[in-house]
Amino acid sequence: MVVHPPPPADVPSLIEAYREVLGGLVDTCDGLRPAEWDLPTACDGWTARDHLAHVVHLEDQLTGGEHPISGWADGPRGEQEAIAIGHPEHVRNSFGVWIEEGVRARAEHSPEDLLAELRGLIEVRVAQMYDPDLELDTPVRSIRGRQTPFGELAVLRLSDVWVHTQDIRDVVDRPGLLDSPGAVVFTAAILGALPDVVAKRVEPPAGTVVIVESTGPVTGRGGVRITTDADGECVAHELFTGHVEEHEEGDAPAAEEQPEESVTTISMSTHELTRRAAGRQSTEETRYHVHGDEDLARRVLDALVLTP
Fold first, then answer.
1. Is the pTM of this model over 0.70?
2. Which end of the chain has a smaller Cβ tally under 10 Å, C or N?
3. Packing angle between helix 48-63 and helix 150-171, nearest 10 degrees?
4. Which has the closest alpha carbon to 141: 123, 156, 127, 153?
């Protein structure tokens, strides 16, 4: 998997990217007109305002805040009742319930108040990250009271905040930030996930090669070759890793025993690729170009959704 520009890979670059992506959300929201906050987005059940409330909720959690429940800002936690979210169609599991509670808890907060809260949280979050002992594998506070290595959490948050920013930009038809660190990180995640997606969700036969290309503003490509091992089982090999895999004698059949390869290349813009992988638009709604097996390309894109 290759991506240009390369995604941030060390602590200082991840911190700077984190600040930039959160700032991009603030800048996007600053430009919204009052009526636009209530527009429904491609994220089922959420308005533009809900996306902002969601990011504020999670960033507050990561600074050490408590998960909100009814009346969370007014009194002792033990005296309050849980938020009733009902049974909305877009909430499919316990994690979705937790997320929805965070959004609903700020239902009475104005967009201006939410933006003010987010601005304060950005400063707190970045200050927390400027710990001289912080390393990529340092366990840090994550959502729902868990601990996650800093590098892993930063990548997840960069992708999540950027995707929600794009949700808001899409609904008001103001494209932008498609070459930002969030776009780079999410594109890299999509292309890096391709081997597992193809092998486990699509399950094509041995001899299949699938390449996905992002044509820009973030450029990159990821690929997978399906072969068989010594036992005749299908095995996925990631392409464009920068190194050649070596097999011990007897680990895999000789090259002449492998089926003839069939290569399918799927090309699309960064916007189309990331919208599809975020599950915000269907394969039919996605503009892409195929060189090779069009049915296989459709099945790959149907399976290429990374968000919960």
1. yes
2. C
3. 160
4. 153
Sign of the CA dihedral 278, 282, 285, 288?
A: positive
What's the pLDDT tens digit per position in 76-105?
444 445 666 666 667 667 777 778 888 888
Tell me whether residue 64 is exposed, middle or buried, using C-beta atoms within 10 angstroms of its C-beta: 0 to 12, 13 to 18, 19 or more.
exposed
Residue partners of 210: CB distance under 8 A and separation at least 6: 194, 198, 202, 204, 223, 224, 264, 265, 266, 296, 300
Residue whose pair of structure tokens reads 């699938």 in the numeric block: 210
Distance CA 95, CA 90 (A): 12
d(CA 308, CA 157): 14
Query: What's the CA gap between 288 and 278, in Å, rounded?
Result: 16
Task: Count how many Cα atoms sit within 13 Å of the Cα of residue 257 in the half-sphere of its side chain.
Answer: 9
